[in-house]
Automatic annotation (TrEMBL), chain A:
It is found in: Cytoplasm, Cytosol. This is Translation initiation factor eIF2B subunit epsilon. It comes from Triplophysa tibetana. Residues 526-703 form the W2 domain. Keywords: Cytoplasm, Initiation factor, Protein biosynthesis. SUPFAM superfamilies: ARM repeat, Nucleotide-diphospho-sugar transferases, Trimeric LpxA-like enzymes. Pfam families: LbH_EIF2B, NTP_transferase, W2.
UniProtKB/TrEMBL annotation, chain B:
Transmembrane segments: none annotated. Acts as a component of the translation initiation factor 2B (eIF2B) complex, which catalyzes the exchange of GDP for GTP on eukaryotic initiation factor 2 (eIF2) gamma subunit. Its guanine nucleotide exchange factor activity is repressed when bound to eIF2 complex phosphorylated on the alpha subunit, thereby limiting the amount of methionyl-initiator methionine tRNA available to the ribosome and consequently global translation is repressed. One of its GO terms (molecular function) is translation initiation factor activity. SMART domains: PX. Residues 1-145 are annotated as: Disordered. One of its GO terms (biological process) is central nervous system development. Residues 16-39, 52-66, 101-130 have a biased composition (Basic and acidic residues). Component of the translation initiation factor 2B (eIF2B) complex which is a heterodecamer of two sets of five different subunits: alpha, beta, gamma, delta and epsilon. Subunits alpha, beta and delta comprise a regulatory subcomplex and subunits epsilon and gamma comprise a catalytic subcomplex. Within the complex, the hexameric regulatory complex resides at the center, with the two heterodimeric catalytic subcomplexes bound on opposite sides. This is Translation initiation factor eIF2B subunit delta. Pfam families: IF-2B, PX. It is found in: Cytoplasm, Cytosol. PROSITE patterns: PX (PS50195).
TrEMBL record, chain C:
Belongs to the eIF-2B alpha/beta/delta subunits family. It is found in: Cytoplasm, Cytosol. InterPro entries: eIF2B_beta_subunit, IF-2B-related, IF_2B-like_C, NagB/RpiA_transferase-like. Acts as a component of the translation initiation factor 2B (eIF2B) complex, which catalyzes the exchange of GDP for GTP on eukaryotic initiation factor 2 (eIF2) gamma subunit. Its guanine nucleotide exchange factor activity is repressed when bound to eIF2 complex phosphorylated on the alpha subunit, thereby limiting the amount of methionyl-initiator methionine tRNA available to the ribosome and consequently global translation is repressed. GO terms for molecular function: guanyl-nucleotide exchange factor activity; translation initiation factor activity. One of its GO terms (cellular component) is cytosol. Keywords: Cytoplasm, Initiation factor, Protein biosynthesis. The keyword Phosphoprotein does not apply. Transmembrane segments: none annotated. This is Translation initiation factor eIF2B subunit beta. One of its GO terms (biological process) is animal organ development. Its main location: cytoplasm.
Amino acid sequence: MAGKAGKQNRARKAAAEQDEGEQPLQAVLIADSFNRRLFPITKDQPRALLPLANVSMIDYTLEFLTSTGVQETFVFCCWMSNKIKEHLQKSKWCRPTSPNTVHIITSDLYRSLGDVLRDVDAKTLVRSDFLLVYGDVVSNIDVSQALQEHRQRRKIEKNISVMTMIFKESSPGHKTRCEEDDIMVAMDGKSKRVLHYQRAQSLKKLQFPMNIFHSGSDEFEIRYDLLDCHISICSPQVAELFTDNFDYQTRNDFVRGILVSEEILGNQIHMHVTKDGYGARVSNLLMYDSVSSDMIRRWIYPITPETNFAGHEGQSCTHSRHNVYREPGVSLGLGSQMEENVLIGRNTVIGANCTISNTVIGANCVIGDNVILDRAYIWNRVHIANNVKVQQSVICDGGEVKQGVTLNEQCVLAYNVVVGPDITLPGGTVLSMHHPDEEDEDDDDDEFMSDDNAVGLNKDKTKHKVFNPADVGAEGRGYRWKASSLEDTEEDELAECIWGPVLNPDPDSDSSSQVSSGFDGPSYPASPEPDDVKVFQNEVHGTLQRGLDENIGCDNLVLEINSLKYAYNITLKEVMQILTRVVLEFPFHQQGVEITTSQYTSHLLPLLKKWSPVFKNYVKRVQDHMDCLASIEEVFLERDTRWAALVKVLMNMYQLEILEEEAIMRWFSQAATSDKSRQLRKNQGLLKFIQWLEEAEESSEGDE
Amino acid sequence: MADSDGKQADSINHATEAKIHDVARSKNEGKELTKEEKQRLRKEKKQQKKTKKDEKGPPEKEKEKPSAPAPSKPVTKSPSHKVAPVPVNASVPEPPAAAEKSAKTKAEMKAERRARQDVERSSKQGKKEGGQTSSSKPKPSPSELQPVVKRLPEHIQVDDPAALKKLAKKLERQQVPLRLDYGYKVSLFSHLHQYSRKAPPTQQISIPATVIHPSIVRLGLQYSQGIIAGSNARSVALLHAFKQVIQDYNTPPNEELSRDLVNKLSPYISFLSQCRPLSASMGNAIKYIKKEISNIPSQCKEEEAKQKLQICIDNYINEKITLASQAISKCAIEKISNGDVILVYGCSSLVNHILCDAFEKKRKFRVIVVDSRPRLEGREALRRLVKKGIQCTYVLISALSYILPEVSKVFLGAHALLANGYVMSRVGTSQIALVAKAYNVPVLVCCETYKFCERVQTDSFVSNELDDPDDLIVTRNGKTHLKDWQTVKSLGLLNLVYDVTPPDFVDLVITDLGMIPCTSVPVAYNIHVNGVLHCRVRYSQLLGLHEQIKKEYGNNVVPTFPPKKIFTLTPAEVDQRREQLEKYMQAVRQDPILGSSEMFNSFLRKAQQETQQIPTEEVQLEIYLSNGQKVKINILTSDQTEDVLEASVVFCPLQRSGL
Amino acid sequence: MPGGDKETDLSERIEAFLTELKRCGSGTGSLRGSAETARETTALLRRITAQARWSSAGELMDLIRKEGRRMTAAQPSETTVGNMVRRVLKIIREEYARSRGSSEETDQQESLHKLLTSGGSSEDNFRQHFPHLKANVIEAINELLTELEGTTDNISMQALEHIHSNEVIMTIGRSRTVEAFLKDAARKRKFHVIVAECAPFCQGHEMATSLSKEDIETTVIPDAAIFAVMSRVNKVIIGTQTVLANGGLRAVNGTHTLALAAKHHSTPLVVCAPMFKLSPQFPNEEDTFHKFVSPHEVLPFSEGEILSKVNAHCPVFDYVPPELITLFISNIGGNAPSYIYRLMSELYHPEDHEQ
């Protein structure tokens, strides 16, 4: 009866379309972001457990999986795995009655989605098609239709289509569209096959490979109105493919890899665009902001605050006009008004004459009088004194805001931070009990590290550091993070900018709008996706930087650069050019662009000396020499004020035996491509140098 | 009018006999007037009874109404008209506002004294060369009547085969394609057209060998596809299209522009009404244009005539629509106070305009946009308001009773304001008014005066419009239930466009003439003189006159004035009041003092100017001196009498003594 | 042990039912009519009675109360669940009383003295153990089930008493009861039905198609046109989601407007509501009363940036005050709204009202 109906229903949702036996639908849930985006918050709590509308994000993900008919879920955790484990075991998901059996798999070795999937393959966990989601995806999409299509495809042409990505239609400029995975997709209108996939973020012009247009189909859609839900239906091959290509780290690697090598491997990727479902990933705090507000505005119905799907005791809240939600035990002071879209956790006490709008307040908070909260996200056990004003900020558990403090846009108070009294935090301030220096140390290890180690060991350091009252106020406790520090905007810094780089000073990112735009972790810097060269260059730069910082041996550097080279499949020639470029520009990065030529050279020469082995490793054949010189030339062509330095560089490289003289001669004699380069060749110093070389030659000949 | 002669005689020689004559005339005229009045009243009473009996009644009856003013123009004593022998000038409109301003000023009185002289003269002139004037008079009337008359019924007589045949013939004659009805029609509405969007009216037209001007064809398509919707947008588009037409028009040889152009327009109009039944506002616009055209003097050069028309149209758009909406928003903003929650329905350009103005005026208010399938025009309104930065909430009409408790005022646009005080507007409006009433929320209707309509209607059935039924079809989570509704013979889709809101749901109508309670809108009394419609006045205006008279002449002289009523009148009461007013007017007219009083006449004049929109323009004044000699002076119709006299005196010095 | 797996099996079924309830809440396009829900609930309760471990009526009642609370919490808008729980509780009381010899009827009489004593006395009484109680209760529940089976027919049987030939009837949205009602009438009489589509869910379309299949002359109108055409309608027949204790309705949204329009034209408004929709709930508590689904229903997500600045609401239910209602037609005949409270007291025991 009832029970049966329930079963049937689930069957209908999930397994009806399954034709290979009665395979229960499986899902792989990755409860780690593999980036430090939400540092310092995620230093104390893994991202998956951060509360969104007072419920941990992972609960939303699991609810989504369950309601869409998943019967077996593998949760992979890495960073703070024990906490996640604990949480899940308490939750209803691990009750025997739960229709969705959850297995928790933890390992500290995971560094990326790639690692996880390789592990999945190794353990052969998945038997048939499975869902792949992150632990911070909030969605109510019913994937059954997409699943059906997927299986259909796989039935028709055996195992050609390996993955179906799920997108949501949403016009550009939509608040919930995370610009950092703002994508441009070219798809085959009929078969829904993805032909081209590229990040459109901060791209002025887009180029599509010609071949996609004369491939079979006659109907193309190039779509920019898509919101990536980060939900994908994968066939078991996906795991295998990850194993085969060790350099796939993220899903984007994978997708692009498949698309590039489509002819060779013959694998295809398809997509499913849903109109009515909702799906978004909380990849940074702006997304956190907009997803929460969507939640409060009931866009994710039936997942709404008052349904209390997570089944926590006493968390069932009531919903009334203007989307005001109250959990039991909330007390509201005289004259306080909750204007609209407000969620208030249980046993929270709010003082008199407060104005609250578009705000989420956790449990057991105490809010004083005359407090103005707008788009504030206040977690549990937070104390806010009187006359406080908070705008679009996050205050984590146990935080305390004293008298008359004002938090401007996009402030973050991490766990147990105390601010005030009577201080105004500028927009984008990030305060944490952890000192940022802890952060610097672990900057050093490789890109794909997850956030686990490094915190514990320098807990002690924080003690004997003093709080700066200028940052946190007289009685404040906490360190100011450089997340929003505007002095340097290098990619890896920006990766920390947890709001997405709305605070990023450089003009191209629009600081006005609420549109989130940020980076998908350190592995993906600001540069537009498709031109790997630039990415690679940044990588190389990063590598060398680190190499310099903790003087890594050159051979290691070479090793790393090589691996990068493979990761971005860069030709040797390009490597050469880029390497040269990076090295030559290195001083500018270190000292800023406006250093004098003499400073420049004085910085550069030691570096050249230091890295000569690296160069030697790449500059072997004659052609290499020419390339190297060519790229040196173009670097200098860009900076015609620095020509004086050119000679020194050449001289140096010659002496370091990176470059051979005849190579230089040849390069010099070679017809100048542009008149600018002709001028360059006319450069006094250069002429002298060449002359000198010639003489040296003659003299050496003379010796015989 | 004639009654004025008493005072005026001194200004010109041969006064005496003229006087006698005029007095005589005035007397029997008085009788005429009353008789005329009476029979008109009887007719109207009958009519109203009819209205109750059947819906078909009114529209046919209504024919007469618009027709009434038409013949009047040549005959009525519009001053300038008499001055020049040709009926150019009763034409170019004068903003009602302007007319209002000049109320009761000294200038006003002068003006009207001058006018009386004109009468005097004209009467002479009539004696002298009456033939010419009189002959020219009746002609224009037919040409401008027909379309106005015919247009109304034909689109609500689809169930009457005879009418259909007639329509078909007419279209045939005009080479306008006849559109075929589409799909099963709900029995209640079998008298209305129901077209399919998929079958545009231009299908049968053979481009370019068509009699229809391309701009009109385009317009027609835009109408039928709903690209141009909303009463204002449609009228503006129409006027622009006509401008285009007139631009491209050139008179065929041995034809007269004023005649030919009108005839040329009528197929266009019937084409447009094939595309989509004309709105009241468009009806008025067309009426106006036709009047303009037919008033183009025959000897007027074509270029200049076209020029004139273009200007007329521009003025019309400017005054009737643009300025009107500004005037309305000026009043309406007064009604928006801080902290208001205002509910609007659909996308009324006027209401949007008001809200935006109010917002720029730093009023703090919230807007709730109510919308309804299938048009979902509200979304457009929503976009516009949000772009402005106004805080909005959006619900569908079914959620009305949930949202209404928050609302403090309801602002509604109107498609037309019917003569019986019913507001004709986008379907759903009446429903909102109803629920608002139930929750005691004030309902304000905003409507430009050019949307006032002579028709009366008590329900949404008689004269309405059916849109494409396929619009109702919707696909929800993969299922489309009404997909093949055509095949199911017993299933009908009804996509109504308008409904009428009874006046008792509406608390206030905001027009460009100010705010008026809904009921008093239509109760405008036609005052006929010489059996032709002289002017149209409202009770309030008459009351004002009465007050003045009392001030001047004291109560004893003045006949009793029908009492003022606080509450809205029942039809019966309206009738009663009309009779009383009639008696009152006659009494006043026949009273020797009052009848010839400045005040009374100036009142009549002002009313007339309002009703017929006497323009300010240069005319030629012909003065016939006693010696039969004729003098021509160029004057402005707005000139004061003194100016005219000054001008004229130059020619006849002997008259100084007379003055 | 057998008992154990019985237990687990039972709890599994309950869980399944709960999730099911939660899910079918999405939109008003719930997969099953409330009649089905009612039946399933009762069946589940019967299963509980049969399989759960309990020695005395008191324990059983507590058990059922507990489960009942969970069920109602799962889908607050589905009041039938709660109603069925109350019905079963009442049954248990009666059976217990009968086996105790005293008849529940006498308890029903609300005398001051009764009120004074009842609180304590009845409670400890239920502790008594009777061997046959279980069988009797299950028996009684089966009767209830059969009654539920019959409701729709019982209602539609009365159709001809209310619909005369060629009249114009308006209804809104889709109610299975009304559908049956009209179809039944259509077998004998010719009449015209106007269906308000009830946006955004447009169940009206479904209704219209299924009616027209029975070749009833049917017309679909948008909600905006309700008032416009009301003047030609001579009866309004609607279904409802819940009948409240005060005789008011909790019906699909738009019904209130419809009722007002009917009132304005003084058109009779007839409500077809089976008994199991009566619930001792009063319209005052707004929070549980209203139910909102995703604004996506009214304003598509693809609208883009303006969404962040706009609040779109999409309530599912309307409250219709009793004074707008002319007549209730339930499976036990027609009643005036003012009579509802009486039926209420017959169906449920006052102590179970809050449950």
